[in-house]
Specification:
Helix content is 20%, strand content 34%. It is an alpha+beta fold.
Length: 450
């Protein structure tokens, strides 16, 4: 009895086997013709494509069968065959149970088939031929993913496929479900999503996702298909991008959860690689969204800054804002540009902890305001002074006795809060991201105290 090819992994298996002894896939639904490689019903005697014999031979054509029918012959062969088939069936059940929907995404190479220039997967071939047979490739879309899935009992055989197109007008992706129907596959379009204005990236290598994309998993007794893609601005006109992680319910045939990471596409200063830098990660409500967010965090193209990185970014932004505000003041003629004032304003950290210095102050007549009413975030009154904290981090004071305004150069930059230390003596506390300062408005001396 000749061996046949397993339609799932391509290895030779004994004719009549219920399960493949290499990949564990069931062989009772369809087989691959050993002559023309077509997928045909498992109970076929002759291939309907090439008309060669693939099933059981008659006793006249098979001398071994004729000999086995004679008394006393073939008994040992029959018994051994039964034992081998029983062992293979037991091993096959174990393999199927471990490979399909056991709550993990460690899968066999043929279970997940990812398209590429050199892709030669049977799963992708089935998906591609089914699309062509049903005239579903007219849009010119390409195959992004094709994955063959079964339930934990190895009975339900499906292919989940994703195609996409980066069209100038209406880029999109589509999700299909394929189910076997004899020697052919039925196909259903589950979802079409348009992403106008973006280039869509599915390639796991470009996303630096390794073997973590895509995969299937069983969560609370339901089977899901997970994949992700990146949306980048067309022609790179803008630096904002979004990485979307998608969870597809295989039985329901619909997307049930999607988590979007939106950030800035930039070059990592250490690695030199492009990445999506996400300052504020999305919220994840529920088990599915939380699981999806955890999976997406393993994609190398996605970078979520640590608290230390966020603090450094904030300090840099405050410094840039202070420098811009100072430049704006110079342009409006509200701040002098003498040497002392320029040194104090441009240096973000002038004083070290415990150091004290006298500041040069330029007094302005009250008739010449230094800022607008909507530009300050806090005001404190006390003694002879009223002190203002501006939204750009600068501090200004008004002296009642001299009826003048002046900028408080306190030895740092980017003030975040102000409050009196001693209003009668004119000493005010100024808090910044880099520490706390005290400024004496009567003597114009500044000291870093923490």
């Amino acid at each position: 009895m000749p061996d046949i090819k397993c339609p799932h992994c391509g290895n030779l298996v004994p004719q009549g086997s219920s399960f493949c002894n290499h990949c564990g896939a069931p062989l009772d639904q369809e087989i691959q013709c050993p002559h023309c490689d077509s997928i045909i019903p498992a109970n076929s005697v002759f291939c309907p494509v090439c008309h060669e014999m693939v099933g059981k031979q008659t006793d006249g054509d098979n001398p071994d069968a004729a000999a086995a029918s004679q008394p006393g012959k073939g008994n040992h062969t029959t018994r051994n065959t039964i034992i081998i088939l029983a062992v293979l069936a037991f091993v096959g059940l174990i393999v199927v149970k471990q490979c399909f929907f056991t709550g993990t995404h460690n899968v066999t190479p043929d279970e997940v088939s990812i398209t590429g220039d050199n892709a030669n997967s049977n799963t992708i071939d089935i998906f591609n031929r089914t699309l062509e047979a049903n005239n579903l490739k007219g849009d010119g879309d390409k195959i992004a993913y094709a994955m063959r899935v079964m339930d934990k009992n190895g009975k339900q055989d499906k292919i989940i496929g994703v195609t996409y197109l980066n069209d100038d007008q209406h880029p999109f992706y589509k999700i299909y479900t394929l189910t076997p129907n004899g020697a052919n596959w039925d196909i259903k379009l589950n979802k079409t999503k348009y992403l106008n204005g973006y280039n869509i990236v599915f390639d796991p290598a470009e996303l630096r996702a390794g073997d973590n994309l895509p995969f299937s998993d069983n969560i609370n007794g339901k089977n899901y298909f997970y994949f992700a893609y990146l949306c980048m601005p067309k022609n790179m006109q803008g630096s904002v991008g979004t990485l979307s992680a998608v969870l597809f319910d295989i039985e329901a045939g619909d997307v049930v959860t999607q988590v979007d990471f939106t950030g800035t596409i930039a070059t990592n200063a250490t690695t030199g690689q492009q990445e999506l830098q996400v300052t504020t990660p999305p919220m994840a409500n529920g088990i599915l969204a939380t699981r999806l967010k955890d999976w997406a965090s393993n994609i190398g193209f996605l970078h979520i800054p640590t608290p230390e990185e966020l603090a450094a970014q904030k300090a840099e932004q405050e410094k840039e804002a202070a420098e811009k505000a100072h430049a704006d003041s110079l342009a409006r003629g509200l701040t002098t540009n003498n040497a002392a004032a320029a040194t104090t304003a441009s240096d973000p950290v002038l004083l070290n902890t415990g150091e004290e210095a006298k500041m040069d102050v330029q007094q302005y007549d009250k008739s010449k305001p230094l800022f607008r009413a909507d530009e300050f975030s806090k005001r404190v009154r006390g003694g002879n002074y009223t002190v203002f904290l501006l939204k750009n981090g600068k501090v200004y004071a008004f002296s009642k006795s001299s009826n003048t305004n002046f900028e408080v150069h306190f030895g740092g930059s980017g003030a975040t809060d102000i409050g009196w230390e001693d209003s009668e003596k004119g000493i005010i506390n100024i808090r910044t991201a880099s520490g706390r300062y005290q400024y004496n408005l009567n003597t114009n001396t500044a000291k870093k105290v923490g």
